[in-house]
Amino acid sequence: MEGLWIVIITAVLAALKPHPKTSVILVENDKSRNAIVVSTQKGEVLVDKPYTEVDLKDKESPPSLPKPVSKAEVEKEFKNTLKMLPPKPVTLYLYFKKNSVRLTEESLEKLKSVLSVVKKRMPCRVDIIGHSDTVGDKEKNRILSLKRAKIIRDLLVKEGVDSSLLDVKGYGENDLIVQTADEVSEPRNRSVEIFIR
Amino acid sequence: MKKFIPLLFFLIFPLFAESIGMIKDLYGKVRIKRGDKFIEASKGLSLKEGDIIFTDSSSGVGVVFKDGSLLSLDEKSIFKVKSYIFSPEKEKYGIDVKLEKGKAAFSSGKIGKLAPKSFKFRVPEGVVGIRGTKFLVSVNK
What we know:
The complex is a heterodimer of chains A (about 200) and B (about 140). Chain A has about 200 residues and is an alpha+beta fold. Chain A has two domains: about 10-85, no CATH class; about 90-195, CATH 3.30.1330.60. Chain A has four helices and ten strands; from the N terminus they run E-E-E-E-E-E-H-H-E-H-E-H-E-E. Chain A has helices at about 70-75, 80-85, 105-120, 140-160; strands at about 10-15, 20-30, 35-40, 45, 50-55, 65-70, 90-95, 125-130, 165-170, 190-195. In chain A, the strands form three sheets. A four-stranded antiparallel β-sheet of chain A has the order 1-2-5-6, with no helix packed on it. A four-stranded mixed β-sheet of chain A has the order 7-10-8-9. A two-stranded antiparallel ribbon of chain A has the order 3-4. Chain B has one domain. Helix content of chain B is about 15%, strand content about 50%. Chain B contains three helices and twelve strands; from the N terminus they run αββββββββββαββα. Chain B is globular and about 35 Å long. At the A-B interface, strand 1, strand 2, strand 3 and helix 2 of A face strand 1, strand 6, strand 7, strand 9 and strand 10 of B. Strand 3 (about 35-40) of chain A pairs antiparallel with strand 12 of chain B.
C-alpha cells in the first residue's frame, strides 16, 4: 500500500441536458479498472469502458444500456466543459536526515522546484503532510513529523507563499510511505509529502 | 448581555466551516449560493459544504476539491455540494453532489480510491457511483 497519496482518477464522467434526459459518459478510467454505476430507482448499469454513454429518461425508468460514443463527438459536445477541468494535483516528496528536521542535500536542492510548481499552480492550495520512519517512540515521531511539515511550510512562506493556502499535518509513523516493521530506519519514510492542488 | 453569547457563537460558527475545495478557474459570471446569500465567485475562492454553484450563459468554472477530485461546469449549470467529508485522520470519507442542470465533467480523487462506495454524483433522474475492482470482478462472473 502506498498510503493516502495514491492516485487519482477512477472516472471522468459527464452529464448533459437533464431535461428531458441526462446522459452520463465515462471518458477515462485508470489502470486499477474502477468503474461507474449509473442507477435510477428501477435499476442500475455498470460502465467500465471509456467512451461509453448511458442515458436516463426519468426516475421511474431503468437506465439505458451502455452504448459506445466517439471520442471526437464527446470532445465536440463537451469542449467547454473539458477545457475547464483543472489539471490533476501533484504530489512531491522532500526527505529528511535521520531523527532530524534537516533536509537531505538532494531535497534541499529540490526545494526550489517545489516552490516553482506551487507558484505555477496559483491559485492553489497545498497540503503539507509530515511523516517519519518507525525508529523510536510513536508520539515523538508524530511530533517530529509535524515539525518537519512546519519547517517546509515556513520555507514556502518565507519565499512569499500565503500561509492561508497551506495546510500542515503530521502523521508520524501512522501513514508510512514504505511499509516496514517497527524500529526500521527507512529514508523514504522520513519525508514530507506536498500535495499541490 | 450574557445570553447573547451562545447566539453570537452560532452566527459566527458557519464562517469557520471548513474549506472543502476552491475555485481554480472561471470565465463569465459564476455565483455561489451559501445559506441565503449569493457570492460572486472568483479564482481562489474557498468552497464550503452546502454550496450551490450557478454558472450564467457564456460562463464556466473549474473546481478542485480537498481530496484532489476535479469538477468543471459548462454554462447555465447548477451544481450542489450536498455533503463532503475528507478526513484521513479519522478515516472518514464521503462525497454527495448533484448536478441539477447543465453539463459537468468530474474526475474522482482520493475519496474515489479510498472509499468508492461513499461517492454519489446525483442527477435529476438518478445517481452515478463508483465501484472498486473487486466488485467489478464479482459482477462480471
